Structures are given as C-alpha cells and as structure tokens.
Amino acid sequence: MPMSEQEIFEKVQETLVETLGVDDDEVTPEATLREDLGAESIDFLDIVFHLEKAFDIKIPRGELFPDNILNNPEFVQDGKMTDAGLKELKDRMPHADFSDFEQDPDINKMPEIFKVQTIVNYVSNKVDG
Amino acid sequence: MRWIWIDRFTEFEPRTRAVAIKNVSLAEEHLHDHWQAYPVMPASLMIEGMAQTAGLLVGQADGFANDVVLAKVTRAEFTDIATPGDQLIYEAIVEHLGEAGGSIEGTIHRNGDVIGNIRMMFSYANESAIGRELPKGFVFTESFQRLLSPFIGDGDHA
I want to staple B69 with a disulfide (CB 3.0 to 4.6 A). Which of A108, B125, B143, B146 is the partner? Predict the structure, then answer.
C-alpha cells in the first residue's frame, strides 16, 4: 500500500531527530537543514544512511544532495549559479523548489534549497517508483 | 606502538555483528592520571574501543579495500563507569552498509551489565571521498587485522 505524504513526513522527521539531535517540533516542512536544523556536511551522509534503512530504498551518491556542481566553472561564476548550473540543478533535483533561489542564485543561498520538504518530495518519488 | 583499545574479538559475523573484549587494568598508564585517587576508564576511550570493534566490521565488509574513518558519533550515552579489574564487552551491530560507508549501533557491557550505548557512522576513506591522495592501509595495519584472524581466513584480509 502506498505511503501517504504524512506518513513519509513522520519517518523523515524521526530520521532528522535521530541524526541531527533536534526536537521533533523543530522539524517542519519548511525548515532548512543547515540553517534551521544545524546540519553539517557529514550529517548529509548520515541522513542518507538513515533514509535508506527507514524506507528500504537505495539512494545513489549525489541523487538526493547533488555533488560536483559548485566546483564546476560552467555552473558557477562570480559566486552566482549560471543558467546552465540552474538547469543542471533542476534536472538533478526535481524534488526541490527553486522558486526563491532562482530570483537570486547566489551560491551562499544554495543551502536554503535543502528543506525538510525537499527530502519528503524525494522519498515520495522514490517509494512511488 | 599501535593505538589498540580492544584485547580480543570473541564473535565476528561479517557485515552483521562483532563482539570484542577489553580488560581494564591498572597497568595502563593513563588510568593513573584519570585519576590518581580514583582510576576510571575514560568514556572517550570506550568510544574508541567501540569504534575499533565496529570499524573492523565495516572495513571487512569490503575486504579492507578501503580504509575506514570514524565520521560521526551520533549518540554516546553512559550510565555507569568502568574501573580497573572490570571487563568491558563492546557489541557492535551493523545498522547500515553502503557504498560510502556504514553506521552501527553499539552496546557496552561491564561485567554483564549494560553501561553504555553508542551510535556511530563510518566513511570509506578513499581518494574520491576525501578529495586527495591518502596513504594506503593507514588504518587497518597488520596488528589490527591480526585481531580478526581467528574468524576470517588470511585471504580475506589483504
């Protein structure tokens, strides 16, 4: 039986409570992983491990949290994401909402893309096949 | 000298579970400073002992093709102390193994009583993960792998 979005959210919430040591009421859909929940780079790997186990899914490297974007000069110029970079990100992250970021694609604001809802969307796509 | 904080493996089920013993002895120099009047096994060294027990489990999972580094201690809770004469048992159970590393749930027993639980995460320390060249075999030295020799054949730990 397919999981509802609420069920997925609750499991994602449990994952973030365990991996980041935050309280469950801090884990809202709009909370950002870095700024609001204090995630550091190694935590992203931990989150992936947890999600794989919690949902019995495989998450290939770079699929949930893309890598090799910021170090590519075609994608980043003068601290801003280029149109090509933005397109690449959107192609690789159909689970993320770029509406705010594309207004001002300053790479320092990129962590704001990674919200709790981003993970919920990713997992929903994954478990629905 | 090698930084080894387990004495012997007593159980080793590849990719699943490992159990190791650590006998706490007053012959260990550090206990005289921690503390002179009341020697106590430092909790940090129990975490290290668990990391070694579990690290070998994670390293053996890919045949020691990659070194393994402790990436994160997500949780470490202790409910009691260990003192000279105590026997500690580190039990590590694999929670997850993947292409990037693994995580384990660990329990520390002291003379049969549970005194700690730990969750920790390991990352395979290869060049692509770290972003620069690393010396080969800097974690799993021969003396480390020898600890496993009763459980796995020589051919399994190159």
Answer: B125
Using the structure block, give the residue that is written with the tokens 């509406």.
A99
pLDDT-derived band of residue B125, with 50, 70 and 90 as boundaries? confident
* Residue ranges matching CATH 1.10.1200.10 in chain A: 1-61+114-129
Which residue from B4, B40, B6 is spatially nearest to B22, judged by alpha carbons? B6
With an 8 Å Cβ cutoff, is A63 touching chain B?
A: no
pLDDT in tens, A31-48: 999 999 999 988 999 999
Tell me if B74 and A46 make a contact (CB, 8 A cut-off). yes
Fold held by B8-148:
Thiol Ester Dehydrase; Chain A (3.10.129)
Contact B96 A52 (CB under 8 A): yes
Q: Which of B26, B17, B69, B64 is nearest to B48 (CA)?
A: B69
The predicted-structure confidence for B23-70, as pLDDT tens digits, reads as follows: 999 999 999 999 999 999 999 999 999 999 999 999 999 888 888 999
